[in-house]
Amino acid sequence: MSEYEYLSRQLSNLIAYYPPPFIFIHDPSNLRQCGLAVQSVIQDIREASVVTLSCAILDGISCFTPRLLYDTALNQLADWTPDWESGCSNWAGPSDLGQRFNENFDGFIHGLKSLKTQLAQEKSKENPRTEYRTLLVVQHADRLKENMSDLIVSLTRLAELTQMDITTVFLSNLRWDQMKPSLGASPEPYYIDVAPITKEATLDRLASLYPDSSVPLNNEVISPETYHPELKQLYIHFLDTLYGICSPFTTDPDELAYIAAARWPGFVKPVLDGRRELIDAGHSEEEVGFRVGLEPRLQLTKLFNARITDALHTLYPRHTSALEWAKSNIPSEDILTHVSAKPPAQMKNDPAPQLSDLSQSISRMAKFILVAAFLASTNPAKSDLRMFGRGPDERKRKRRRGGTVRRIGKSGAVKIPQRLLGPIAFPLDRLIAILGVLLEENDADKRPPAPEYTIPGEYTEMEISRVAIYSQVVELTEMDLLHRTSPADRLEISPMFRCGITYNVAQIFATEIGISNIHELMWEPA
């Protein structure tokens, strides 16, 4: 890619001719690809024999203690591999005294100087005029601030402390201003900022990985027609949908290609099955073709949005392989009939046939959660105290009247009821609070006796704090009955959800759990 071509060219000139003592490379989007580009530059310099380059590439994640960092660096610089026969010992210097250079940073400096002396003697015999240079690369350097913040200053001043021709290179997805020590203890680095990979560049690279028709596909999951040339336009549309779902979590082209390879065979399977049915009915292959219209394309996108999210959650952390996931998630042959059998309006107005199996498959507590989610998505947050607040006296709700629209002047805007605008997002703690009120009012008579709870509401407080409630929320999210709107990696904020059921479904569930009329709990009743 052009971003890494610029990085490779600039870094190659610096290292080969006049490297600064400290280089900081900032890549906010794809640090792994940046590390591969740096390794490629180092390999090219070594093959060109411009300078004798000794390099150690460390990882701030695996080298989480000073000793691990010192030993890994010296072993790589000395080309030393610990083996079982020698006791898995680390590099101990040119002599047989068994020196240890991992006790502290002073010992590490002595180890670098001893290593320089040894390598200089070896290289001088081959070519006395060869220039010797050392490179220390630290990937995920921002982890040093968390585990070994005291080493940041020492590593950035390594050339000054050792009096050697050595360059320290930090690779991080954070800027130097976010991890540099205070009081200006570290020198200012030579900055190299890698521009984030654009969406167009990422999609172009993913589209370029589409297999050629001449490449044989011998796989029990992938049909020979899965990557037919006429399906490439549908594949580009699929990549755009995939990027929109996965981009909040990763924009690494390799990660996206891995997820696409697992999900594409299932995504295109309904198209291939429909084509095969037409051929079996007597149509010729030339007449049928592989073209997919706009409406089936939109149906596929709507149907597989949640399944792409499942693939992301499973494959991105590598809980399983792409092949195993593709085998276990092969769609059924009649999957598109569930989408196109009824128009959307009819499905929304007649939910009973579709709820027969769902109502039996979910628990009573799950129905309470769904009703609470519907109320949280319909009622404004400011109305919770009035609608669900409890005091010493009997509650007195004052709802907003529904069914009429107030007429105002021509210059003003008409406020549309929330039930017509669709569900709003709500935090998890608000859902739990509304759930507690519903349980206290509609489930207290059906609970087993618990004499240890004497204070009113104590049993409900214990019930809504169980882990099973949160597990039920996760399960309902996987069933698409709740939709999570906040990123899963944002742990500092409360998770945000949106209700995935309609008013009619909520009314049916409310009746089953003992809530006679859900209108009484709505701020703007229908």
TrEMBL record:
GO terms for cellular component: nuclear origin of replication recognition complex. InterPro entries: ORC5, ORC5_C, ORC5_lid. Its main location: nucleus. It comes from the Eukaryota. GO terms for biological process: DNA replication initiation. Signal peptide: none annotated. Residues 363-515 form the Origin recognition complex subunit 5 C-terminal domain. Residues 235-276 form the ORC5 lid domain. Keywords: DNA replication, Nucleus. It is found in: Nucleus. One of its GO terms (molecular function) is DNA replication origin binding. This is Origin recognition complex subunit 5. It comes from Cerrena zonata.
